[in-house]
Design goal:
Blueprint: E1 4-5, E2 22-24, H1 27-30, E3 34-35, E4 50-52, H2 58-62, E5 67-70, E6 75-79, H3 104-107, E7 111-116, E8 121-127, E9 133-134, E10 139-140, E11 142-143, E12 146-147, H4 149-177, E13 181-188, E14 198-206, H5 208-212, H6 216-224, H7 227-237, H8 241-249
Parallel strand pairs: 1-8
Antiparallel strand pairs: 2-8, 3-9, 3-10, 4-6, 5-6, 7-8, 11-12, 13-14
């Protein structure tokens, strides 16, 4: 279980995507603050095309996005656009497409667990610059000097998320130990035959050839521990590249609102 604390004296390390001003949550600094309802709470995702996923999200995410493994550490991510800094699932007003899966990494905002470099522990933080954080809250962080039920629920969600992150790291390590990764390409070929295929993206994915070459007992082991179904979700999701590319081609060339 993650050791989380409320500590305004903590010193944080590292950058966290989407978080402009993460601060350790404390009664001293944040009593009287909380969350208000805003029209487009996920507009802050407008300027990214990749969002981290945990392994248990592969299924629902695969219905909407290609699920790939990014960089040399093979971080699972949902691909939300084919161009850097462009989320095709957020419109020009900042509205996240309502029928698209919303990754847990996004749903926890403006809360996050971060490393306290001094105490070597995880502390609960909020993004003080989040547009939904206000001094006239509908959902206060504290009530009568104690954490509100809303805040307790948010912290529980963050703890659960960190647990899923640990499971995801183990899943990726297993794929690496089995040597299942390979470099893949996403290409687009015009249906009218008017041009050659164009390289859209290069990424890491599971090799079907390597997967099929595994011994039967290893396949059974992957099936029993749930890894095999997640691998198949990943492979199935790659069929969504063409849909994503077409979505990019049809995208109006207008600025997207990143803040509310």
């Amino acid at each position: 279980m993650t050791d989380t604390t409320i500590d305004h004296q903590a010193e944080l390390s590292g950058d966290i995507m989407f978080y402009s001003q993460p601060e350790p949550l404390s009664k001293e600094a944040h009593e009287g603050l909380g969350i208000r309802t805003i029209e487009h709470p996920y507009a802050f995702t407008a300027n990214t095309n990749l969002v981290p996923l945990t392994v248990t999200e592969f299924g629902p995410a695969a219905l909407c996005y290609p699920v790939i493994f990014a960089s040399d550490i093979r971080t699972p991510v949902a691909v939300l656009g084919v161009n850097p800094n462009e989320n095709l699932f957020v419109d020009e007003k900042g509205q996240f497409q309502p029928d698209a899966y919303l990754p847990a990494y996004v749903r926890r905002y403006p809360f996050v667990l971060a490393n306290d470099t001094q105490a070597q522990r995880m502390v609960v933080c909020i993004d003080r610059q989040a547009p939904m954080v206000t001094d006239e809250p509908e959902l206060p962080f504290f009530e009568k000097g104690e954490l509100s039920d809303y805040t307790k629920g948010a912290i529980e969600f963050c703890n659960s998320f960190e647990g899923e992150v640990a499971r995801t790291i183990s899943f990726v390590k297993l794929l690496e130990e089995l040597d299942l990764f390979e470099r893949k390409e996403a290409r687009y070929t015009p249906n009218d035959g008017s041009g050659e295929s164009q390289l859209v993206a290069e990424y890491y994915g599971v090799s079907e050839e390597k997967l099929n070459a595994l011994p039967a007992e290893k396949i059974k082991e992957l099936q029993e521990n749930g890894a095999l179904s997640q691998i198949y979700f990943h492979l199935l999701s790659l069929m969504g590249w063409e849909r994503l590319i077409v979505k990019a081609m049809l995208r109006p060339r207008t600025p997207v609102a990143a803040n509310n």
